[in-house]
Design goal:
The chain is built from eight helices and six strands; from the N terminus they run βαααααβαβαβββα. The chain has 195 residues and is α/β, with parallel strands linked by helices. The chain folds into two domains: 135 residues, HAD superfamily/HAD-like (Rossmann fold, 3-Layer(aba) Sandwich), CATH 3.40.50; 58 residues, no CATH class. β2, α6 and β3 form a beta-alpha-beta unit. It is globular and about 50 Å long.
Length: 195
Amino acid sequence: MRLGIDFDNTLGDFVSLLREITLARTGFDIRNMRERYPDAEHPETIIHAAIGKERFESFLTEIHETDLTLQMPPQPGAIEVARRLAERHELIVLTARGTHESEAVHRWLERHAIPVRGYIATNRAPKAPHAIEHGLVTHLDDSAEVFADFDDTHPTVPALLAHPMNAKATRAAHWRSVEDWLAFERLVQSLEREQ
């Protein structure tokens, strides 16, 4: 089977790296923004108010477009589970990053010895058409917004990874929620049995 996997906050822990950079450069700790400000529409609005939108967006750009990506720690369990899944399946990284932001991701994947069979950068475009085009049986992502285009007729099973930013997200009935990488591995095993 072909399995789609997001990169930022799914394979790699983007938020941890962003937290380190923001704290080191501004003294502002973005940890637990959702818990500290539960009524905020999106935690970024609080960060923008605290350190400035332009400054925050420059941090995001720097992580995406430079070797800072290589400093991103893996999500817990991601490396081990991805390697096991790659023994039986084709792993396809399906990321919203731009093609100009891809080199560091490829180097990160090599550094962590994750054998992916494909890499798709959507340049911030929707992922649903790419999932169909590449025959993904499932796609693991940390963002509920990504799955807005994965309606109940879409052939790819949306697997939403637990993440604080999804706490208030409305989930469609056909989505699968997975707490962590081990739960995703169990989902893949159940999909294998259905094949």
